[in-house]
Amino acid sequence: MFTSSATLTRRFSALKSDADFWSLRHVLETHTGYQVRKQVAQPPRFSEDQGAMLTARVKGIEAYCATSDLTQAGLQAALDRAGALARALAQRALVDTSQAPVPTEQMDDVMPGYERVLAGPAEWFELLVAESVKVPSDERLVNSQVSLEVTCTEQIYLNSAGACLRRAQRFIYPALSVTASDGQDSQTRSLGGANFGQQGGAEIVERIGLVGAAPRVADEALQLLLAPNTPSGPRELLLLPDQMALQIHESIGHPLELDRILGDERNYAGTSFICQEDFGTYQYGSPLLDVTFDPSIPEELASYRHDDDGTPAQREYLIRQGILQRPLGGALSQLRSGLPGVANSRACSWNRAPIDRMANLNIEPGEQSLAQLIGGIEHGILMSTNRSWSIDDARNKFQFGCEWGRLIENGELKGVVKNPNYRGISANFWRNLSAVGDASTVEVLGTPFCGKGEPNQVVRVGHASPACVFKNIDVFGGAA
Amino acid sequence: MDARDHFTALLANLGPLLKADEGFTLSYRAETSDFVRFNQARVRQAGQVQQVFVTLTLFLGDRHAEFELAMSGVIGEDHLRLHQALEHLRDVVPTLAPDPYLRLNREPWQSEVVQMAAGPDTAAVVEQIIQVGSGLDLVGIYANGPQYRGFASSWGAFGWHAASSFSFDWSLFHDNGQAVKSTYAGQRWDNEAFIRRMAFAYEQLDYLGRPARTLAPGDYRAYLAPAAVEEILGMLSWGFSAQALATGASPLQRLFGGSVPLSPLLSIDERVAGGLAPAFTSEGPRQALRLLDKGQPAERLVSSRSAAEYGLTANGAGSGEYPLALAIAGGELDEGDVLAHLGTGLYIGNLWYTNYSDRPAGRLTGMTRFATFWVEDGKLQAPVNTMRFDDSVFSFFGPYLEALTREPELLLPTGTYGSRQTGSTAVPGALLGRFTLTL
């Protein structure tokens, strides 16, 4: 762990610059991918990526140069390039960073169990093949995949004020999916994948219940193939956590990103229906809605002690009893806006600069069990496992689709329906939150695929949520 | 070190390390890119990224595995990293099960394209952008620099692609929140050409300043400008994959299954010439392919693995079977006649955030975004507040496709996930007799 730390520290100390402040952020990321498709082991993929971003601040103007050349000369050249660029932009920059906070802490942030060695390729393939062969033999089951992705990231942040922040994390993504098709229609049912990832080790594979899941997942894919389409019309909507994660992400997370509100993302990811003036007073949801930025849940994907600019991270309420409290804005955005924020200045790797991102964004549990949630619904539908998402550039008008739907009538679960879709408007949707599941319904989920930024970046985000019920939602199915 | 020299030095070092029963392929991608973000016509964030990655695949009979690793650009250090990756693969590959779908292209093919030019000076371009954008609410990103792609195998294949380019992708915002999006890309920055594009965008801002119209959900006549057609095409691109078609994952499965055609006005090709993408993939030289012929299904994108699994013939598609340079053939509609032929309806400049409502049925949803106008009697009337569409491609690109504009527009990529993209598309605008808005 941190094997290049001593060398990097020595080389950083030897760097020369006339900048007012400079920093180095080194990332070493290794990745392993195993997949078995239709009982055939695919060739495994390994990767190792490392490099460093050098940032120079000159008279309040900051610029960067990212390089994979980690020699003394390479780092010096990158710092010189960053400094020259900062000077060249002197009269042209939007933001004066001279008052931005300068981290000085020295701290290690190592995920519990990080140094525990995981099984090797042969053992993982044995597990994945064993699960793959459990998919029943049925000519309608045209595809199945069982996979495991493992990513280890070590980051070292150093700056000219003496900070040294080191972080080591391992992320595990188990996944299983089965597709049933009759030639005209096809339906996929899945477990894990883009909806699920956690920090930790092999225990995560057990936690998600991958082993032994294939027959159930395959059966559900076949049920969907035979099921009627979701009927159209307003219903009460019960979303399970693996759809709540997407709902939180798109219609709470992105609109609360402060750089969007400040206009930085208008050319690409978009803006927000929320204004700076809304914080402290805006009724975002019903009084049942409590939303936290929580970097302290060990297994959640974006738990960390400092963000990538070196700001200490702590739990904060973003929405409390439905009222908007604070945005998702890092130290620089807080400086620009005068608003409070959180430690969410993050980069996807060494070759991209930190910007405001979601991290762990969670809904706090309520008081009803899943049975009570279902029992309280007269005319509704349960939806589970996101498969489609689309929302406008202000993060208001959305349409989401799930893999799995079940009608609910008079407090009881009824038949399975396929192509469950729903649409709404963020500003109204959360005010229709009518019931929140208790802790027994909470799942800690997340995705490694949150895209944003120019140049583009994909980061890991975590979402923990209970099951939730929404009133009077427009639901509909697919084509005939 | 020059990128090509770096690649060939890695190859020269790797070759002698191989044992008699081993084979390898080595892919190379590198770039030195300046990135400058703008907001309010000022620089929000600026920097440079220098990166080099190689992917080494080791073959031992019918077993294989791959290792991607970052290179430092310092040749001694990189020899060491590559050697360590080779040793790691040597530990793993013998433990793997044989791959029944390995049909490696062992031809000693050669391909080399170099399109390098002295790129524009980033600081000078930034100055010009800020001058021209002065007083406007301009937001966007400028990217500039050389990109390299290489491929070689121990069986004698060698591909090299080097190209320098810039792209400026920006929006102008009106005070009312409406915006128009533009791009300018190429090899040599021409300030006059940039000013003309900016002037065209500025003209549209005038229309965008009018009070916006809010439409009710329903069916409308619509014109999709090329950028909007490109967004739709992006969703269909996945559909030509042989594996996607065989596994129920394609939005075009009903088309290729023969149950629903698209409009006979529509023909789609995967091109090799005329785009920015390399002429090769890790599967070998790419082939020009007609994927859709007058609304009828034609070729699929077939990788060597799909060829082996489904009994097809490989046609140079990469392992992901994703097209790199799609082109929709132009039609009969002159661009100057678009509004007259539209009559009353929607002029849609861009679509955004498209996804599937029902993938097997080819049903898509997405949002209008940037420069979308209400048109009456062939005249622009007012900008339209953001609307959602939800409609089947077999409808709006089926019986309701009335015309395509004559000259397809070449749209160069601005995407930068991981690295700057090299693909491109050439698409005309599309006049639709019916397009369904839902929210």
From TrEMBL, chain A:
It holds the Pfam family PmbA_TldD_3rd. Signal peptide: none annotated. Residues 238-475 form the Metalloprotease TldD/E C-terminal domain. GO terms for cellular component: cytosol. Transmembrane segments: none annotated. GO terms for molecular function: metallopeptidase activity. The keyword RNA-binding does not apply. GO terms for biological process: proteolysis. Keywords: Hydrolase, Protease. InterPro entries: Metalloprtase-TldD/E_C, Peptidase_U62_metallo, TldD/PmbA_N, TldD/PmbA_sf. Belongs to the peptidase U62 family. This is Putative Zn-dependent protease. It comes from Azomonas macrocytogenes.
UniProtKB/TrEMBL annotation, chain B:
Keywords: Hydrolase, Protease. Signal peptide: none annotated. GO terms for biological process: proteolysis. It holds the Pfam family PmbA_TldD_3rd. InterPro entries: Metalloprtase-TldD/E_C, TldD/PmbA_sf. GO terms for molecular function: metallopeptidase activity. Residues 217-436 form the Metalloprotease TldD/E C-terminal domain. This is Putative Zn-dependent protease. It comes from Azomonas macrocytogenes.
